[in-house]
Design brief:
21% strand, Rossmann fold, 187 residues, alpha/beta, globular, 7-stranded mixed sheet, 40% helix
């Protein structure tokens, strides 16, 4: 079985950030989160942000966004209508039905593009939209914990990722491919 990270691997960019900016264009009250989003993204990419801090930032964002009548779910379909072109077709050709896509992005966001992903096996961050918070932050070593909860000790034949944030997944993979500019390079 192969495992694929989603952001900057299958999707060109950070889908959660793109989704946040998409929602900002349609819900101005989110503007106050732009500096936090940008700083968090920088900390995440530089592997400087601890999982607990990132989760807290995201929970604060959800609490602020979900205080009205709109839900992020209202934005998922129109977001993907506008952003599906950012899927990396070359990487998607490698995905087979038995493979797994694992992401720190919210599962509700990735579910919105499921029909294009070639697999139904998707693991992501779980969000309770009623409670306005993350119930499982699928980031860092939590990706391995969730993978093992579902698949036990089954070794990953090949991991495709863009980030050193997935070093724990790398340790349980036979082969690792780092995706740079949409092209996988074997480590």
């Amino acid at each position: 079985m192969k495992v694929f990270d989603f952001d900057n691997t299958i999707y060109r960019g950070e889908s959660s950030v793109d989704f946040s900016f998409y929602m900002i264009r349609h819900n101005r009250k989110i503007l106050r989160y732009v500096p936090t989003i940008l700083l968090s993204l920088t900390g995440y990419k530089l592997v400087l942000l601890k999982k607990e801090r990132l989760e807290s930032i995201i929970n604060n964002f959800f609490a602020g966004v979900l205080d009205g009548t709109e839900s992020p779910l209202d934005f998922v379909k129109p977001f993907w209508d506008a952003h599906a072109h950012k899927l990396n077709r070359k990487i998607l050709q490698l995905v087979e039905p038995e493979d797994v896509i694992i992401s720190a992005s919210p599962i509700f966001l990735i579910e919105g593009i499921r029909e294009h992903l070639n697999t139904d096996k998707i693991i992501g961050t779980e969000v309770d939209l009623t409670q306005k918070k993350i119930t499982w932050f699928n980031f860092g070593d939590n990706k391995v914990k969730r993978y093992r909860t579902i698949y036990g000790d089954q070794k990953i034949d090949a991991l495709y990722t863009d980030s050193q944030n997935d070093k724990e997944l790398m340790r349980v993979s036979r082969e690792v491919y780092i995706v740079k500019n949409g092209i996988p390079v074997h480590l």
